[in-house]
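Let's practice the habit of predicting before peeking. Look at the sequence and jot down your guess about where helices and strands might fall. Then scroll down.
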Amino acid sequence: MSRVVFINPALSIKERYGILAQAGGTEPPFGLCYLAASVMKDGHFAYIVDAQALNKGCQETAELVLKQQPRYAAITAVSSSIHNAAAIAKKIKESDANIITIIGGPHLSSLPLETMKEFTEFDLGVFGEGEETLSRLLDCLDRNQSLTAVNGLVIRQDGDLLMTGKRELIKDLDTLAAPSFELLPKLSRYYRVPAQSVDRLPAISLVTSRGCMGRCTFCDRSIFGNYCRAHSAEYVMSLIKKLYHNYGVRSIMFEDDNFMFFRPRLAKLLQLLNKEKLDLTWSCTARVDTVDADLLKEMRTGGCWQILYGIESGSQRILDFLNKNTSLSQIENALKMTRQAGINTKGFFILGNPLETKESLKETMSFIESSDLDDISLTFFTPYPGSEIYSSIDNYGRLDRDWKKMNQFEAVFIPQGITKKELLSFAQRAYFLFYLRSKTIISYLKRIKNLAQLKVIFLSGIALLRYMLVHKNYSDEADNN
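Done guessing? Here is the structure:
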């Protein structure tokens, strides 16, 4: 059997969050952990180099890979890391041309032919869900068999690019081997949830389902689509116990596209959590149209301390354009019920949407000020390849297609009728008004349980202050760029 090294390419926390880096989080590369477990199940040797967590540059990453003497180097990449992925592949090939470089992940799945054409450093591409495709691919390569019958590949053949058929999604996620967390750097040292979602430490994020029933125009659904699948409550509980007992994790952030969509599973998981009586808290993401008062009370009893809602805008016109299928009254009601259940609320907002105006920004500001939110997160509209809006985005404004900037914290899209300076200034003012009010400050002081948590919150506060103060310089220069 072969040696496979999986690579999460270099992308520093500063590149991802900019000035807000100290408030940001570092997620374990779940996809690579599942892939590594899958190939080990087939008898291959697997190793993970998480250059993001280790903060390694492209040269250092390539050296770590080469030390393992692999036959295959499998790299994942989002749009903002695709150039770094290519640089690593190039350095690997320069040192050992016999190593086969394989690229996968969201960017390749969204633009398979374009990516392989632009980056010749990649020998093969895997698009879509990767576990079964990679297993078949390695088997064929080891046996020196044709790859044309393996669905889910982009192949270089006689100077051209060939896409094989699309692979069906895995129906039962419990058939997957448990993700290989043991191949990652020390979890408690190298990974963290965003400071806004820290309740206890060590804290880590976890994804337990795939797909989303939402059809928001800005989401990239090129890999999982709208077909929603989830691990069983028993499988999730086994992961939780592993993280709790083996790695000392005391708080988990479930980052599923919609953790609460699978209601029977959630009910069963709450039963298991109450039965185990772990000293553990957790948070999750949710749509406002999936919660009710009774469920929220049960979640609070089961250890849930925070729910993160994708609100996006305070303008109903913008929500309708984004195809959110939610109303402002639904949002307000969900926030009210959540707070009444004793659970903190965090709202995600997107600025600079298509059709955004000064008036819609004012509506969003008014909503933030009047709602009973404990935290907010502001990002800029980023039309990723693979999203519904991507092909028509030029009809609504100006898009900077520099993949390196597509991290949601840089304003790469500027809608018609508004300026980049106005967007940046709005973000600065919204953070200023929300986080410097006494209510928010007191809420954060109550969260502090130990010195480690104090440090996280303090550094996050410094980052936010820098954003609010330094951001003015950025906004003054914005319209000249």
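How did you do? The chain has two domains: 3-163, 192-478.
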